[in-house]
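Need a sequence for this fold. Nothing fancy.
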């Protein structure tokens, strides 16, 4: 059952991570470009370049973050980032106001401990893979 609430869309905190390589490229694995014709272009790129992973949230109240991850984003370091940095910032921004936390289905977000933390701390107010029905 979907609950219809006035202002619901404005209470969502949209979140995602991006990977920035130190040579100036950005991982655009989620970007799709459409065209009338196949351009038959091959783009060569170096692999295993050093880079940084960054999390950011966006809501009707503004930008949350960015927060930088050391190394690869895993379920464990994502959970640490949620508990130590992301949620304290969100709670300061929203105080006692209702909000919904959105995350995509990336493997770190789907980690059992991450979902348990969200269930415990957001009580049905998070949107994501295997999340509560809203």
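Here you go.
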């Amino acid at each position: 059952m979907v609950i219809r609430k006035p202002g619901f869309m404005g209470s969502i905190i949209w979140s995602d991570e991006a990977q920035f390589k130190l040579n100036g490229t950005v991982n655009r694995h989620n970007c799709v470009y459409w065209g009338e014709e196949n351009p038959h272009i091959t783009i060569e790129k170096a692999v295993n370049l050093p880079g940084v992973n960054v999390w950011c949230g966006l809501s009707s109240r503004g930008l949350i973050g960015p927060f930088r991850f050391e190394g690869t984003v895993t379920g464990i370091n994502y959970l640490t980032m949620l508990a130590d940095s992301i949620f304290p910032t969100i709670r300061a921004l929203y105080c006692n106001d209702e909000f919904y936390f959105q995350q995509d289905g990336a493997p770190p977000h789907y980690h059992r401990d991450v979902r348990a933390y969200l269930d415990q701390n957001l009580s049905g107010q998070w949107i994501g893979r295997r999340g509560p029905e809203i």
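For context: Strands lie at 12-21, 51-59, 62-69, 100-102, 126-127.
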